[in-house]
Write a structure and sequence with these properties.
With 360 residues, this protein is of the alpha/beta class. The chain has a domain at 158-183 and 193-244. 44% of the residues lie in helices and 11% in strands. It has 8 helices and 7 strands; from the N terminus they run H-H-E-E-H-H-H-E-E-E-H-E-E-H-H. Strands 5-4-3-6-7 form a 5-stranded mixed sheet. A two-stranded antiparallel ribbon has the order 1-2. Helix 7 packs antiparallel against helix 8.
Length: 360
């Protein structure tokens, strides 16, 4: 009986030991769970910091690229000169895409030279001779000279306005009819008008050379001694435009029928507002017109469905790729610039130079 009691006490003690052990393990598990939760929160925080640092790293690398890579300018990319820094503009003036050839400078061997020839009937002849002896000072005005040589000088005539008065006469026939072979004078019109040469020069300098009206007014006053107001200059250009419309319509029609057309655009200011000067051209035709915008809509309204039959030669302006052309060809000059940028980035590669040679 005593042995059974001893065994019972021993078993009971073991059971109580297991309970205490389990209670201790439970406390340890709770402590470990707290540690794990704390470490998990810390890991999540670290992951967020890593994501933020990676994002900052990418942004910094992107910002540093422009310092590590050669800068883009109008000489090695499609960047317009107006958007490049002054330093790049100065460097561009000393760097050209044209490569030095192996030919010597000047006229080439076998090239047929041309020399300006003297005209047979000059407008004016001047006899050049000495009036006195350079040694003794004797008068030579009555001495007949001997022809030494002849040369001719080309110059512009003295610039002065020509005032041409026109008198219009009406003739009355025996039948009583009054005949006038000229346009009647406008009521309230000025008796002074400007001739075709002044109109031609004003239109050419304004439209082709883009001389502003204020400078054009100053030019006429300074060079030709002709006082002409800016308003009159505007009217002259407008009247010439009206007379030129049949020719402009012909150019537009021929452009619509062309299979390959080059397009470009450049900013211009009209009455203080930014407009765009567009150009459409082939080897034989050139049309320049003004547009209020720079979008594809300008060309679509001007040329319509004929654009679908054209291969357009352009730069990389996005508007050209929004138009349903038959095909697109990047301007070779822009391709050469882009290849030049690749040469600047990697001096070791040769394929970009080889493509440049192929394009040239």
């Amino acid at each position: 009986m005593s042995n059974k009691l001893a065994i019972f006490v021993s078993v009971k003690q073991q059971i109580s030991d297991i309970s205490s052990i389990l209670a201790g393990m439970s406390e340890q598990l709770k402590s470990m769970q707290g540690t794990i939760d704390s470490q998990h929160a810390e890991i999540c925080s670290l992951n967020r910091n890593v994501d933020r640092l990676l994002k900052e790293n990418r942004e910094l690398r992107k910002r540093l690229e422009k310092y590590e890579k050669p800068p883009m300018d109008s000489g090695n990319s499609s960047t317009p000169p107006s958007k490049e820094p002054i330093k790049a503009e100065v460097e561009r003036r000393t760097k050209s895409l044209r490569k030095r050839s192996e030919r010597p400078v000047g006229g080439q061997y076998g090239h047929e030279g041309t020399t300006r020839k003297m005209v047979e009937t000059p407008d004016e002849i001047q006899d050049m001779s000495s009036s006195y002896c350079s040694e003794c000072g004797c008068d030579l005005s009555d001495v007949e000279g001997e022809l030494d040589y002849v040369s001719q000088e080309i110059d512009l005539p003295q610039i002065r306005p020509i005032y041409r008065e026109r008198r219009f006469y009406k003739k009355v026939c025996i039948c009583g009819c009054c005949n006038r072979d000229y346009a009647p004078r406008r009521r309230g019109g000025n008796a002074i008008t400007f001739g075709k040469n002044i109109r031609a020069i004003a239109t050419y300098l304004s439209v082709v050379q883009c001389v502003p009206y204020e400078r054009l007014q100053s030019l006429f006053a300074t060079m030709f001694n002709v006082r002409i107001s800016q308003g009159t200059l505007v009217n002259i250009v407008r009247e010439t435009l009206d007379k030129s419309r049949p020719a402009i319509e012909l150019i537009e029609r021929l452009l619509r029928e062309s299979s390959v057309v080059g397009f470009d655009e450049s900013g211009c200011y009209v009455k203080g507002r930014l407009n765009w000067s567009w150009i459409a051209q082939t080897a034989y035709l050139t049309l320049v017109f003004r547009g209020a915008g720079r979008s594809a809509k300008v060309l679509e309204e001007r040329f319509g469905d004929s654009l679908k039959k054209m291969t357009a030669v352009t730069d990389r302006h996005s508007a050209y790729f929004a138009i349903d052309f038959l095909n697109n060809q990047i301007c070779l000059a822009h391709l050469l610039r882009n290849l030049e940028y690749l040469n600047d980035i990697d001096k070791e590669q040769t394929w970009a130079k080889e493509v440049q040679t192929l394009l040239r």
